[in-house]
Inverse folding.
């Protein structure tokens, strides 16, 4: 059984920082791309950042250099360092992982962690 668990959300003032963590647990053989998505109230879920096992990364345009995704393959974890947060970053942030037990990977999702940027 696979579990994807996020942590690190909370309330922060505009201009502040938060670091989100995501851990993938279970008896699986391969862990592929891992990603952060978010759902802003009233909008569709959108990709924030993703990272390959080799370390290649991709970011959404709205990140604009403020966020950094990182990964530890041995720990099966990723992080999202978010700096210079804006009220528009208020959302539920979800971690996603592509995991394979045999040949074909499937995507698994965490329950999400709330990030609120406000005074």
């Amino acid at each position: 059984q696979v579990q994807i668990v996020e942590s690190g959300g909370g309330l922060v003032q505009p201009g502040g920082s938060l670091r989100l963590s995501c851990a993938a647990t279970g008896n699986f053989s391969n862990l592929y791309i891992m990603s952060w998505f978010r759902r802003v109230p009233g909008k569709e879920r959108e990709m924030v950042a993703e990272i390959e096992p080799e370390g290649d990364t991709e970011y959404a345009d709205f990140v604009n250099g403020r966020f950094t995704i990182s990964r530890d393959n041995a720990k099966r974890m990723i992080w999202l360092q978010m700096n210079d947060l804006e009220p528009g970053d208020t959302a539920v942030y979800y971690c996603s992982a592509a995991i394979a037990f045999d040949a074909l990977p499937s995507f698994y999702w965490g329950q999400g962690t709330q990030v609120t940027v406000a005074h």
Notes: The chain has a mean pLDDT of 96. The first strand starts at residue 3 and ends at 7. The radius of gyration is 14 Å.
